[in-house]
Amino acid sequence: MQIEHIDINETVAKARAMLAQEKNISMGFKAAIEVLFVIITLLSNRFNLNSKNSSKPPSSDPNREKQSQKNASGKKPGGQPGHNGANLKPVANLDKVQFIAVDKTALPKGKYHENGYDARQVIDIRISRYVVEYRAQILVDKQGNKFTAPFPEGVVRPVQYGSELKAHVVYLSQFQLLPYNRINDYFAKEINLPLSMGSVYNFNAEAYKALEEFAAIVLCTTAFH
């Protein structure tokens, strides 16, 4: 988009290309600049938002098309006939089955036999820490030589953060634009997993490094077009 005859996307792309050519800049500084690029892009896009292409309420959109009547189409509010709704459907792969027995003391006297069950599902989420311990088998031959099974790729420390946790942190930081201290507070209170702001910074830098080659390819492709 353009603001005051300035093409924001083109300008950011040129700045990224210049930054990629700099060899004497630290990865941390590059990661910080990349965050600024993301913020600039998001803020510039907001200038082009209205009540039709965003969550902006119509009442705050001065350029909205005003209807002469509240319900100009004459249709009833809500889903229309033939509309595919978003109703929940039963899940086949259950995580837990909780059996509820009939309180026989509350029944009239007599003999009863079981006739199946009535099922209801409650779909919920659990935000919790998930720890995997890899135990590499060690074999020793008659000469006393040890042979240890190899750990999975990337498992190099006695205790370390997993890739899914790192990805979630980068998502909160770079896409949702949460400050480092709020990410730290979220992990400490909701997941009971203290996470330093330095770790958040390191995860962002690691993600930037992993995507550096991909970003260079995208920039080159954009330049040729």
Secondary-structure topology with pairs:
Layout: E1 2-3, E2 6-7, H1 8-21, H2 27-46, E3 138-140, E4 146-148, H3 163-175, H4 180-190, H5 197-224
Antiparallel strand pairs: 1-2, 3-4
Beta strand count: 4
Report mean pLDDT, rounded to a whole number. 79
Number of helices, where a helix is a run of at least 4 consecutive DSSP H or I residues: 5
- Unreliable stretches (pLDDT < 50, length at least 5) are none
Beta fraction: under 5%
Compressed to H and E, one letter per element, the order equals EEHHEEHHH
- What is the spatial order of strands in the main beta sheet? 1-2
User: From the helix content, strand content and strand pairing, which structural class follows?
Assistant: mainly alpha
Q: Kindly provide the radius of gyration, computed on alpha-carbon positions and rounded to a whole number of angstroms.
A: 28 Å
Give the distance, in angstroms, between the N- and C-terminal Cα atoms: 17 Å
Largest sheet: 2 strands, antiparallel
Walk me through the structure.
The chain is mainly alpha-helical. It is built from five helices and four strands. Helix 1 (8-21) runs antiparallel to helix 2, helix 1 (8-21) packs across helix 5 (197-224) and helix 3 (163-175) crosses helix 5 (197-224). The longest helix has 28 residues, at 197-224. The protein starts with a strand and ends with a helix.
Brief descriptors of the model:
4 strands, two-stranded antiparallel sheet, 4% strand, 225 residues
